């Protein structure tokens, strides 16, 4: 019965997707003219035929955007922090493909968002644990029917009760208050990954370290913890100061072809930790007894200079990465935003920086298309510049960046993808 219901749901979703307007609009309009105009005049474009160009309109009626995704329903979901001095002004904003605001919902302390294939939405935020609001703790709000504008809150995951390893422990005061849920990502079967940071990381305790990844099934039950990741030290499987998590599954909705891999990617951007490697691929493996282990992704250790000039696993490649996102299509690019360099970086699924050269190109290496920074005018307000970029996602060859300091959501496509 479950699979019959799932098949029916997916069929309805697919019908909806094909009937919806494109997220980036028609190719035969003024938007495309603006794209090529910007691409021709901006001095920051790489000196070759392949580069990202802006797709207008940007989403500009947001204040301090923290995260952005395109859901399986093709809507754009943005977390906005309207007042950085208060957790009570954070909200979810939903936009259609024309960058029009269609719905908004206040979520206490909201910072991150994800959606699963059932169109259930998860938002990381805070909740008041006492009536007088003197204590707030980390939470993940599980919401249904958001696209319909009729939100139904369902089985909210509340720290520390949602962690099965804490069932025999009591409230830890300021240590529990300091815990944050810093990233959300879902798998093909609606499993939810929640990244977490906090001060308690003693491996001799019964409770799992605060720095790590909690794993929940589709019913909101904590079924695992990513054991084996180093909680405080730099390594190729570190969980020290996680700021974002991503999986290989993502929209558009489809009955087959979606990645079933349990592997995930981490951004380690907490400035409290001095780490050599700050964006990692974590390999999930099973032994003959079906026990799960979490380790480094050896694919990223290939520094083949004949194929690329820069690599994901170069020492100290990133300064303060804020988000990471994996493109769930044939290109399989990995996108990283970095707050300190105000930049967006693009890598192949082998860890080579850049995108594939065009089929008719004589250039055989990955073409570096990463961009950002303060720009020629030093104001960082141009279409290729960012101020504290805080989130990134990818949908049907389009990149969306939460440009926090410029109060906007920027959109880009490779010029080779615009026909």
Order of strands across the biggest sheet? 1-24-23-22
What's the CATH architecture name?
Answer: 6 Propeller
State the secondary-structure class: mainly beta
Count all strands and give the number.
Answer: 24
Largest pleated sheet = 4 strands, antiparallel
How many structural domains are formed by the residues? 1
Radius of gyration: 21 Å
N-end to C-end Cα span: 44 Å
CATH H-level superfamily title: TolB, C-terminal domain
Large-scale geometry: globular
Show unreliable segments: 1-48
The first-level CATH class is given as Mainly Beta
State the CATH topology: Neuraminidase
Tell me what portion of residues adopts beta-strand conformation. 25-35%
Average pLDDT works out at 88
What order do the SSEs take from the amino end to the carboxyl end, as H and E?
A: HHEEEEEEEEEHEEEEEEEEEEEEEEE
Keywords:
mainly beta; disordered N terminus; 8% helix; Neuraminidase; 4-stranded antiparallel beta sheet; 3 helices; 419 residues
How is this structure best described in words?
The chain has 419 residues and is mainly beta. It has one domain: Neuraminidase (6 Propeller), CATH 2.120.10. 8% of the residues lie in helices and 32% in strands. It has three helices and 24 strands. The strands form six sheets. It has a four-stranded antiparallel sheet. Strand 4 and strand 5 form a beta hairpin. The longest helix has 18 residues. The radius of gyration is 21 Å and the shape is globular. The protein starts with a helix and ends in a 5-residue tail after the last strand. The N terminus is likely disordered.
């Amino acid at each position: 019965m479950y699979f019959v219901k799932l098949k029916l749901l997916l069929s309805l979703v697919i019908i909806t997707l094909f009937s919806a307007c494109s997220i980036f609009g028609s190719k035969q309009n003024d938007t495309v003219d603006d794209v090529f105009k910007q691409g021709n005049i901006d001095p920051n474009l790489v000196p070759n035929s392949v580069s990202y160009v802006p797709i207008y309109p940007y989403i500009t009626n947001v204040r301090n955007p923290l995260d952005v995704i395109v859901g399986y329903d093709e809507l754009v979901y943005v977390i906005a922090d309207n007042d950085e001095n208060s957790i009570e002004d954070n909200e979810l904003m939903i936009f259609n493909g024309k960058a029009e605001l269609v719905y908004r919902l206040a979520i206490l302390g909201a910072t991150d968002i994800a959606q699963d294939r059932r169109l259930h939405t998860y938002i990381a935020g805070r909740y008041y644990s006492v009536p007088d609001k003197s204590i707030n703790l980390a939470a993940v709000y599980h919401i249904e029917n958001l696209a319909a504008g009729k939100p139904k809150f369902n089985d909210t995951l509340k720290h520390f009760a949602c962690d099965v390893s804490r069932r025999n422990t009591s409230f830890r005061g300021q240590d529990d208050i300091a815990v944050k849920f810093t990233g959300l990502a879902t798998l093909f079967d609606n499993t939810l990954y929640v990244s977490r940071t906090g001060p308690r990381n003693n491996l001799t305790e019964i409770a799992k370290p605060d720095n790590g990844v909690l794993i929940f099934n589709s019913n909101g039950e904590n079924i695992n913890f990513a054991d084996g990741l180093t909680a405080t030290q730099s390594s190729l499987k570190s969980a020290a100061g996680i700021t974002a998590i991503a999986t290989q599954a993502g929209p558009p909705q489809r009955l087959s072809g979606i990645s079933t891999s349990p592997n995930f990617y981490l951004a380690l951007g907490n400035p409290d930790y001095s780490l050599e490697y700050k964006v990692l691929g974590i390999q999930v493996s099973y032994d003959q007894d079906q026990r799960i282990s979490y380790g480094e992704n050896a694919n990223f250790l290939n520094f083949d200079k004949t194929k690329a000039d820069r690599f994901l696993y170069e020492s100290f490649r990133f300064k303060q990465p804020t988000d990471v996102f994996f493109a769930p299509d044939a290109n399989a690019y990995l996108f990283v935003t970095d707050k300190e360099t105000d930049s967006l970086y693009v890598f192949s699924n082998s860890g080579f920086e850049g995108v594939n050269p065009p089929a008719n190109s004589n250039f055989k290496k990955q073409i570096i298309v990463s961009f950002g920074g303060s720009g020629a005018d030093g104001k960082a307000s141009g279409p290729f510049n960012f101020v504290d970029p805080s989130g990134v996602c990818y949908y049907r060859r389009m990149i969306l960046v939460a440009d926090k300091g410029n109060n906007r959501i920027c959109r880009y496509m490779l010029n080779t993808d615009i026909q």
